[in-house]
């Protein structure tokens, strides 16, 4: 019998669910044993349920093809076969909140890619290199839910991954005003060019909800736990525009920053290259060895050259220079479905295991 933790994927047939399954293939700690999806997929094998809708370049792992998909709404049944679940369900926000809490109340930890619980005050929203200490709020959440091991933890929006880590690396220089415009890949909407042909050679200057997430979610990452809830930081203001561009994978950000303590360019680059956190200290399986890289070439980072840096778990930064209005400006790039979605959630689960929050049932 495997000593790996048994994992369920809620919403396993969608693009992010598929990315979870791909990333967990051969994982040293976790093994996918259950896949749950909508009632129309229940009873089919995973291979049958996905059919020709497998969206990734890497083929479907052999180990999941014959898993019989369960109805995600049969919470007790799914939960009884796993140690914890990843959530990537495609439902309304209220439905997601409800079903994730139902799973948590079966004493099954939920690590969610969804946005529904990102602002629930006692649910940690974590980038493991930035705010691992926020996992401590889980103890307050468990009291509210009446659980001993069940809880919900979430990762933030994919759009902030290409700049929030950089600003975190620079926190000693006290950034206080930021403009962050993001140029977001179509896979962030769960689409490929086959699904969304009108995105070919097109730009759409609106992505519902993204600008609010891009402006507010970093503040929660930088917040503190007070009286059992996470209180967002209030010492920095971010304004954002979010644009959909004809790229399959990779969110690019152009960022302008004002600092209270003005650093040199060399200091900023040094802080980027040296930045690391608990995942690197613990050598968690999905952790990039170097979290952020700085590229000196004027034409970097580029999606085609850099989006898969550190297996898609690293951040690439370039074009750092002084600005005539703000202090500095730069360009950042991150992989939106790996670091920004499923991979970021897998790293959260690895951290939770290392911290003792996720164990065998």
UniProtKB/TrEMBL annotation:
Identify the domain of life.
Bacteria
**Gene3D superfamilies listed in its UniProt record:** Dihydrodipicolinate Reductase, domain 2, NAD(P)-binding Rossmann-like Domain
Active site, renumbered: 158 (acyl-thioester intermediate), 251 (proton acceptor)
Please give the family membership noted in the entry: Belongs to the aspartate-semialdehyde dehydrogenase family.
Semialdehyde dehydrogenase NAD-binding domain: from which residue to which, for each copy?
6-138
GO terms of molecular function: aspartate-semialdehyde dehydrogenase activity; NAD binding; NADP binding; protein dimerization activity
Q: Which SMART domains match?
A: Semialdhyde_dh (SM00859)
Q: Which GO terms describe its biological process?
A: methionine biosynthetic process; threonine biosynthetic process
Its recorded name reads Aspartate-semialdehyde dehydrogenase
Pfam name, any one: Semialdhyde_dh
Sorted keywords for this record are: NADP, Oxidoreductase
